[in-house]
Specification:
The structure is a homodimer of 136-residue chains. The first copy, chain A, is mainly α and 136 residues long. Helices cover 50% and strands 6% of the residues of chain A. Chain A has helices at 8-21, 29-36, 40-52, 77-85, 107-125, 128-132, and strands spanning 56-59, 65-68. In chain A, strand 1 (56-59) and strand 2 form a beta hairpin. Bound molecules: FE2/S2 (inorganic) cluster (FES) (2 copies). The structure holds a DNA duplex (30 and 30 nucleotides).
DNA sequence: TATAATCCTAGTATTCAGATAGGAATACTG
DNA sequence: CAGTATTCCTATCTGAATACTAGGATTATA
């Protein structure tokens, strides 16, 4: 029903990162899942993706876990979203001309690109620190 | 893959309205579908929804069809989107407290509400005329 | 009466988000 | 070395939603 529904991947991922931002040492997937009420195995995959994209560092073995590789203030939400879902794009043809059978000047496309820009800017202007800071 | 993918309902609906905005008399679903390359019967349903919400006026019978009930400059894209998909809401809990098991002060929620606001404002600030006007 | 249109209801097909399952590789600990 | 806790990898399932199709009833025009 809603125009844009943020996937649970992103919601879970953001909450997990927020949890990690409020912690010193590493936290395991199980720990975060328990604290946030997220299915453990599912979260594992999400954290793996965030690790692969460089936002997290992982340590295997006992006492291992995940930790942020950057200070929370340097992690934009846009980078989180892109790590988990790839590029933001409201329509197929927003990717570029040719995806659609319309011509270069297609007017609706320009409109949708404007929406993408607006969303991108919001996400780029907010960091993980903003998300966890009540006074922002 | 993308964070927000605009549904074909909305894309088709917007293109149909743009087509109608560039025309004087009424246009039938078949005519619009042919011109825009949209499945006819599918478009019929979309146009029906736009009619029910008051954005279009329909005339039945031969030589009937659909026409805008307002000048293009007075139709915000937000009203189009809401007519076709209901309220815009990035997460369940953005609807209000209680939808989620978190407390009132849940920080991610405030972040997502901010995103909703940014999108709403973009959509409310653009009219159908902006969409079809190259110089906007 | 023939035709062209909206309107109404139901059904299908495919895709995808959201999760689950099982185990292999790795690292610490006693 | 044995045990345990962790990440990592791959495969599979499922429910819901999107996108579309089908058929016809109703209404107006010519
Ligand atoms: S180019 Fe895709 S709708 Fe026009
Ligand atoms: S209230 Fe829904 S995530 Fe916090």
């Amino acid at each position: 029903m809603p125009l844009f529904q943020v996937s649970t991947r992103i919601q879970y991922g953001l909450r997990a990162l927020a949890y990690l931002a409020g912690k010193d040492g590493p936290a395991s997937a199980t720990e975060i899942a328990g604290a946030e009420g997220i299915p453990g195995k599912y979260l594992e995959g999400i954290l793996g993706q965030l690790t692969a994209s460089g936002l997290l560092r992982s340590e295997r073995g006992k006492n291992g876990g995940y930790r942020l590789s950057l200070p929370a203030a340097e992690v934009t939400v846009l980078s989180i979203v892109e790590a988990l879902e790839g590029e933001i794009r409201p329509t197929e043809c927003a990717a570029g001309p040719g995806a659609c059978d319309h011509d270069l000047a297609c007017l609706p496309r320009r409109f949708w690109l404007g929406l993408k820009t607006a969303v991108d800017e919001y996400l780029r202007s907010r960091t993980l620190l903003d998300v966890i800071d009540p006074a922002s």
